[in-house]
Amino acid sequence: MTNTLRWQNLKVLLASTKREFENLQSQLQSDLKQLGDQVLDMSNAALGYHKVMKENRALHNMVQDLKGNIRVYCRIRPAFDAEAKTIVDFIGEDGSLVVIDPLKPWKDGRKIFEFNRVFGSSATQEDVFPDTKPLVRSVMDGYNVCSFAYGQTGSGKTYTMSGPGGESTKEFGINQLALNDLFLLSDESKDIMSYKIHVQMVEIYNDQIRDLLANDPLLTKYPFIVIFPCMNGNGLPLPDASVHPVNCARDVIDLMKLSEGNRAVGSTAMNNRSSRSHSVLTVHVHGEDTNGNIIHSCLHLVDLASSERVDKSEVTGDGLKEAQHINKSLSFLGGVITALAQKNSHIPYRNSKLTLLLQNSLGGHAKTLMFAHVSPEGDSFGETISTLKFAQRVSSVELGAARLNKESVEVLELKAEEALTPQTNKPKEASRTPFQKPKATAELQEGYDVTKLYDQAGNDSFMKTPPSPPFAFRSQDTPQTPASGLKYQQASRSPTSGFKSQQPSRSPTSGFKSKHAPRSPTSTYKSQQLPRSPTSGFKSQQAPRSPTSALKSCNAPRSPTSAAIKGQVVKTTEITEQKPLTSSTHGMGSQIRRSLQTIGKLINGSDRKNQQKRTEAAAPLSPFSYQNEEKSSTTSNARTVRRQSLTGIPLLTMSRRSSLGGGSVPDSCANESRNCKTPVASAKLTKRWL
Ligand SMILES: Nc1ncnc2c1ncn2[C@@H]1O[C@H](COP(=O)(O)OP(=O)(O)OP(=O)(O)O)[C@@H](O)[C@H]1O
Q1: Closest Cα to atom 14 of ligand 1
Q2: What region holds the Kinesin motor domain (predicted)?
Q3: pLDDT(177) > 50
Q4: Ligand 1 mutation pick, 74, 77, 162, max ligand atoms within 8 A of CB
């Protein structure tokens, strides 16, 4: 009885445990499902985040484009004497500024100017930077950007660009804030883009460039032992000064401190620590996304030397010489701005080192930002007006749409390929990068190839001479890597192949371009159909590697079809040899057309008889010597004639095999086939070819 009760209790317990277990199981399942859904949501959100970020970037650049790629801001320094009367009459939210001549305080003395924005004397660095930020950020998207500070001495250029010199972010200048932001942006987008940032700091003093970050003190003392040319070895408007990798804002601040110590400053009547030179901080950005696309751009942050009149600054001797140089270079800068504003065909960038250095950021396809600085004091009115007029002129310049310095994987492949392409095969212009303009307009060139710089810049130094490609082979040389063959094939598909006039064409007959004609239709066929095979590229260009194919190339082909082709190919080769590879693509096209026609005829068999006769007459039929061929041909003809006389059947031009439905194999082949083993492979290839 107790046992039965116990048994029943156990049964109930088991049933309830089972139920509980089932409940737990279903709960676990629903929890897992929920977790799965959450993971899915999260991954969708992550994907969406990247998409939205990309869209945001695109929209941001669109807004920038709509706003215009040249921005002019005016900043008014606080008056040194709070009691003194200021010349600033009105600052509008829309960027208008009214200044008043202290000598003519009535209506005629008012001058109105329009800029993108005017910052009053109470504006802090943090107020100014947000308007700069969007433009500066474009550099991370691959645009060249230039921000320069202009104004008379003591008007606050250095204050804006470098800050008052403190360590806190509040005391940062545009330079530090911009770099800080670039690092922030680089960190935010590290999942999709990896950036390398390098900086360069130079000074243009008395129209000579010197490296502000040089370790050797001899390089930073005037007169300079080493004067850096404005163009480096690559002909790029880039000072040949040291390039330093930076990983955070701190690195930049340290470098800026070093550069400050090396800068040429002097005392003028208007500023006791006046910059006597133009300082240029160049930030080189090199980014690579997850797909292998590359951007390379640069940001110039320029603190110009002061634009005051020589008599006002009361400088003499060396100071006067400095001032004259400064004024000259600023007037050349004005000349460039005027030429750009008037859309002149010639822009005089080469008149000074400053304009030469900034040429890739001033005109054309860069984004430019100018800070016009003015002092509010009445005695600076003349200087203020000239600064504001200059700024007004700059704002009237219409820059073209900013150009993205981005290179897709395909373009990079083409470039790599081009480096390996023999120089003799390239037209003169082919040596330019896709971003470069013809030499005639080199002066206006921008978007220079900073990748070269990164090739050259090691971790901490900048080598002057670009490394030449490890090897270069001529068109007939055997390339060292099979990959180059592959690249040729890939490149020919690229939509950008138009850049390379000498790249292999997309035509299926590209194999015919080479001086080595294809050995047999199948080899041509292979090179057309299997472009990705590393060796296929070579087949059309190089001598065959396998001993068999080598034999084929040296002697007459075994297959009569290939013999027929050979006959044609010999012709093609002759034509090719008459017209070297350096001939125009037009010549190449007609050559390809001829080759195509030949192949077409062979495929259709329309010209079969003639072809056969020609083949018999001209092309060798066996891999042996001509003598042997002649013998063999005569013997076979005699045999055929004898057979005809014995059987009374008229002479056939087609072989027995072809009459049985096989390919159009000429009789000669049948003869040969009867005398030796049937060349199965050749028959097969013929069928495939047909
Ligand atoms: N916005 C500002 N707020 C406070 N102080 C400022 C501001 N702008 C300039 N100053 C002060 O004015 C003085 C002159 O400024 P700064 O040296 O930047 O002028 P500058 O245009 O670079 O002159 P120079 O061309 O002669 O070097 C400095 O003492 C600086 O601290």
Answers
A1: 154
A2: 69-397
A3: yes
A4: 77
Pocket perturbation via mutation, ligand 1, pick of 73, 75, 158 by most ligand atoms within 8 A of CB: 158
DSSP state letter for 246:
E
Statement: residue 28 has pLDDT above 90:
yes
Which pLDDT belongs to residue 146? 87
598 lines ligand 1 (CB under 6 A): no
The answer to whether 156 is annotated as binding is: yes
CA 334 to ligand 1 centroid distance, Å: 23
Q: Is residue 90 scored above 60 in pLDDT?
A: yes
Tell me if 115 CB under 6 Å of ligand 1. Answer: no
Mean pLDDT of the chain: 64
| Pocket of ligand 1 contains residue 158 by CB under 6 Å | yes
- The two three-digit tokens of residue 241, written as one number: 């000064």
Beta strands in 308-461 (DSSP E): 367-374, 406-407
Q: pLDDT tens digits, residue range 502-531? A: 333 333 333 333 333 333 333 333 333 333
Q: Is 105 in the pocket of ligand 1 (CB under 6 A)?
A: no
Distance CA 466, CA 189 (A): 30
Residue 664's alpha-carbon distances to 445, 564, 641, in angstroms, are: 60, 12, 21
Average pLDDT, integer, range 389-416: 72
**Backbone dihedral region for residue 136 (phi beyond 0: left; psi -120 to 50: alpha; all else: beta):** alpha
- The predicted pLDDT at position 657 comes to 35
Q: How far is the CA of 371 from the centre of ligand 1 (A)?
A: 13
Decide which of 646 and 221 is more confident: 221
Mean pLDDT, range 675-688, rounded to an integer: 36
Q: Locate 327 and state its tokens.
A: 């004024």
Is 635 labelled as part of a ligand binding site?
no
- Of 167, 170, 87, 166, the closest CA to residue 128 belongs to 170
CA–centroid distance, 81 to ligand 1, in Å, is 14
Residue identifier of the C-alpha nearest atom 15 of ligand 1:
156
- Residue 61: CB atoms within 10 A of its CB come to 19
Q: What is the pLDDT of residues 139-170, one digit of tens each?
A: 888 888 889 899 988 899 989 998 887 777 77
Is residue 212 scored above 60 in pLDDT? yes
